[in-house]
Design goal:
152 residues, single chain, alpha+beta, 39% helix, 4-stranded antiparallel sheet
Length: 152
């Protein structure tokens, strides 16, 4: 189930790096296919800095756990997209009011295959209130609206 590269990477991780990755991966959302990504917004950066005292994102990018190229999504193109944060599902919806920055890019970083596989076994736990804070800030900044889906 895990690639040889992932197992080799895991053998080279020391305890502080593994603990930092577990904390870092706790900020990841997943898309409808289960792929992990982390928004690169003020809320996320602030929350990560509060919990990890070093620039592990740079380290995780350099060592192959995160894709080195930032991606971007736009608030005007989020309708019906799924954003999962652990067991909470959010559905993207266009903001009701035309927002001045609706075409501003919302950057995010995706996990590589190795990062994805390690995050699956890392024992991550949700950061209380984080997802709601992120979506509240993104809505305020650019009209990115995500609504929590009701459980069946």
């Amino acid at each position: 189930r895990y690639s040889k590269r992932t197992l080799n990477y895991l053998r080279t991780m020391d305890k502080p790096e593994a603990e930092a990755f577990t904390v870092y991966a706790s900020f990841a959302f997943t898309d409808k296919n289960g792929w992990r990504f982390i928004f690169q917004d003020e809320v996320t950066q602030s929350r990560i800095a509060e919990t990890i005292n070093a620039d592990f994102q740079g380290h995780f990018t350099a060592t192959g756990l995160l894709n080195p190229t930032l991606k971007a999504m736009f608030a005007s193109k989020i309708d019906d997209r799924i954003y999962n944060y652990f067991d909470i599902r959010f559905i993207g919806a266009q903001a009701e009011v035309k927002h001045a920055h609706i075409e501003a890019p919302i950057p995010f970083i995706i996990f590589t295959q190795i990062g994805q596989q390690l995050a699956e076994i890392a024992g991550c736990t949700p950061v209380e209130g984080y997802a709601e804070d992120v979506f509240r800030q993104l809505n305020s900044d650019c009209g990115f609206n995500a609504i929590e889906a009701k459980k069946p």
